[in-house]
Each structure stands twice: as structure tokens, then as C-alpha cells.
Amino acid sequence: MKLAEFPEDIRNYLIPEPSGSMLYRCLMCRDEFDIDHLLYTCPSCGGILMLSHQSAPALPARDGALWRRIFDFRRMLNVNPLKGIFRYYEFIAPIIPLEFIVYLGEAHTPMVMANDQLEGAVGRPFYFKNEGLNPSLSFKDRGMACALSFLNYLAKSKGIGDLLTICASTGDTSASAALYAAYLTDLLKSAVLLPEGKVTAQQLSQPLGSGATVLEMPGVFDDCMKVVETLSETYPVALLNSKNSWRILGQESYSFEIAQNFDYRVGDKVIVVPIGNAGNITAIISGFLKFLAANLIAELPTIVGVQSEHANPVYRYYLEDDTSQRQFAPVEVSPSVAQAAMIGNPVSMPRVIELVRDYNEAAERKKIFFLEVSEQEIMDAMIVANKNGNISCTQGGESMAGFIKAIGQGLVPEGEIGVLAATAHVLKFSSFQEMYLTDQFPPEYKVKPRREFRNIPIHVKPKGMGKILETGTPTRGKDREAFIHEIVAEIARIVDLKKR
Q: How far is the C-alpha of 319 from the C-alpha of 271, rounded, in Å?
């Protein structure tokens, strides 16, 4: 739709101009720093940072009704930089001029409602938000679109070239970072660091295909993270993990989309998300708080963070109800099917602690909960979801298992609706599905398939046809007719068909 075709009173709001200024703010000492330099931790005390926008005077004057009209009309606008996460430009990074925004087709992923059978099995209506339909097949593209747009802006405005981006990854971050860096090959080179043998073949192929330098090292993700943190503190490299505050901003779009998709009525929604490195749950909490402050939404939804019992430091922290007694302690992780969540020391934990407190205070009651699920529950849920028409990854299975547990614990009253994050595409984790369906899980995962879910290919080879099939050449004439007849009869027997 062309700009001239929009209502005149809204037209001037649809194409945004850069406004205000942005600062890094330390969560520990509260010092603030300019964004002209790449910062990941506080130069004063080493604390973790978040970004804040000092808005232009005109922006706070807009009421919730006007913001809703802007975003609802903007979704019809055919302007490339505003098609993705930057539909919500003013709430993400409004200092970046539109010409520097990198858009590769990310965001606005579909929400697929569970069918009646799956809803009945789980106990409440719910949707899967299919983040696997982002360009690199995971939710990481939201944050990467923002981080790389800022790098594009910073590098070109300051004449910086030949910049190296780097990240640690369990698979999805490396795929996303490599893809977006590859789009900016005039400015960037990309390197990714992976824990050797702990990334699926499908995930490993993605950064290799995007031309990144792929480095593998012994250990787990937490070890890789320590290495890239040290590199970013010692050398002039751009860190692309969620320690990068720009990543968090982009991922806030997840909350904005959910609000808009429900016509900004989210008080009766339950948002369920795996925790992993805690960047995504940080962004989701922050996003809803921003929309509440601007009166785009009147109530906050419930948020449920889920962890596997094989990697559960956040769940353990919140087991203690007395906030004065809580002590965060990293954990040693065990092998998990939810590989993206297999993190024992999430870097965004300080953000989570602050934002959970702010969220519950804004809601005037506890609306954020943390639950633990087993590896068995994760895989069972993933298989059940996929058998009912969804494309749920193992992390999506973790979300569904957490939603079931939340219902069982009375955290989801009648009438509330779930929105479950399937953070990546199921095909990235096809090896886990294959191990489940064929009962080949290594013992350390503690997963045994339910008998009714086992599923392996059936070789159709009717008796008496072996000689024809052994030739390896196409059948002809009467042999072909006999071959087709016997194959049809055998398939009918296998799937229990009756003749008309």
C-alpha cells in the first residue's frame, strides 16, 4: 500500500525518523556510557549492560491508541526496512537511520493454534509461535537483525572496515550470526566458536555455508562463552552473543508481535519460553514492560520460563521464595535434547533478576514463574506436537512440557491461552527425533520412547517379487504389471485398506 493511500492523520507517523539518543546503562553501578563504542560489560565495574533510549519530546506524548494505529497501519506499508522487527522502530533502536537497517526476512512468524486433539491432551488452548521460520531457522535472527543493523550504522558512519564478528554457540546463534555477517561482507568477517561434538550436523552446516570461520573446541557452551568474552575484552572484535545489548533489543519484537496479534489484549495470555542463555526471556519481559509503559497494553501476560533438569540454574535460583536469601550458582550441565538451552551459567542472569522484579511490581502480583522439566517430558511433548501438525523443535517440546506442568500446578486458570515458543526449526534437531522414533538414545539423556510413538520405515517387498527387485532395473511388460499389482496389495495389507 502506498503512503498516499493511508489516512492523512496517520501518514506522517508511518515512516519514522531517527530520534533521541541511546545509552548503555550498567545494572550494577548504574553508570551510563555512550554507544559510540562497542561495549558488552561496564568499564567501571564489569557489570552487565542494558540499552536505554532517551526519547525525543514528541514520543512520550503519543498515547496508546495512537501507537496502536501507527503499528497497525505500518504493517500494510511496503517499505523494506520496516517489514521486520523495525515495524516497532521507536521501541527498538530509533537512533539507526532506515538506510542502515538490515532486513533478511526475519520476524512476524506465524502463531499456529493447537488442534482440538492436542488442546485436549494438554488441557488448555494454546499456540506455537514458529520461530523456526526465520531466515536462519531460529529466533536468534530477531536480535541479530538489530545488532548487525547497529554495526552497519556504526561502521559506515565512523569509517570502520574489516571488522570481525564472533560468537559462542550451541548452533542457532552461529547460524544467525554467520548469515547476517555474510550479508555485510563489505564490512564484516565472521568467526563462530562451537563446543566440539555438541552441535547437530544440520546446525554445523549453516555457518559453514555462510562462509564463516568455524572453530570447534573441547568443552561445553559455557567454556566457549568464556573464550569469546575474553577475546572481546582483549581484541577489537564484535561479540554477537546475547551479552551484546543490541541483541536483546531486537528480540523484544517477539513480545510486540504477540501483543499486536491479539489486538493488544494479553492479560489472559501465558507466554512460555525456554531459558537457555536467558537473553530471550529477558527480551520478552522487557518488551511487554515497554508496551505497558506506553499504554499499548493494559495488562501484562503471565510468563513461564522453562529449563531442563539437565541445565537448570535459573529454576534453582527462584526455588527460594525469600529474595534476600537467593544466591545464584552456575551448574554443570548434562547432555540435553534442548541443546540451545543447555547452558549452566546464563550471561543474562543479572538482567533477568532485575526485570523479573520490575515485571511483578508492575503487575502488582507474581506473574513470572520458573519450572523444570525432564528430558523425557521434552521429547514426548515434541513428538506429540509434531504428530498433531506442528513443526516443534526440541525447545518447542520444552515449552509444551513446561506449559503442561504450569497447568498441573494451577498457574494457568481456565480461560487463559498459551503462546509457546518453538525457538528453531524441527529439522535442525531431526537427529533427536530419529533417536526417539528408533529407540537409540544414549543412556545419559534418560529418554525412552513411548511404544505408541515408535516409527521406522516399512520396506514394501511382497513375497515372490525378490527376483524382479534384485535386478535393480525398471520392470517392463508383464513383469511390471505383476510388480505393481503385488506392491499395491502389500501396501493395502500394511495400512489395512479394503477394496471398494
A: 20
Residue 82 confidence (pLDDT): 98
pLDDT value of residue 103: 98
Q: Residue 358 in contact with residue 424, Cβ under 8 Å?
A: no
For the full predicted model, state whether its pTM sits above 0.85: yes
Q: Cell 507474581 belongs to which residue?
A: 366
The per-residue pLDDT for range 66-93, each reduced to its tens digit, is: 999 999 999 999 999 999 999 999 999 9
Q: Report the chain's C-alpha Rg in angstroms.
A: 25
* Mode of pairing for the β-strands spanning 21-26 and 49-54: antiparallel
376-385, 411-420, 463-472: the lowest-pLDDT one: 463-472
Q: Report the Cα–Cα distance between both ends of the chain, in Å, rounded.
A: 53
Quote the DSSP letter at residue 300. Answer: P
Give the burial class of 58: count Cβ atoms within 10 A of its Cβ; 0-12 exposed, 13-18 middle, 19 or more buried: exposed
In the chain, what are the domains? 111-136+252-453 (3.40.50.1100), 139-243 (3.40.50.1100), 458-500 (no CATH)
**Among residues 463, 238, 236, 242, which one has the least CA distance to residue 345?**
242
Question: Under a CB-based contact definition with an 8 Å cutoff, are residues 173 and 204 in contact?
Answer: no
DSSP H or E run through 272: strand 269-274
Among residues 55, 51, 47, the alpha carbon closest in space to that of 34 is found at 51
3-state secondary structure of 215: strand
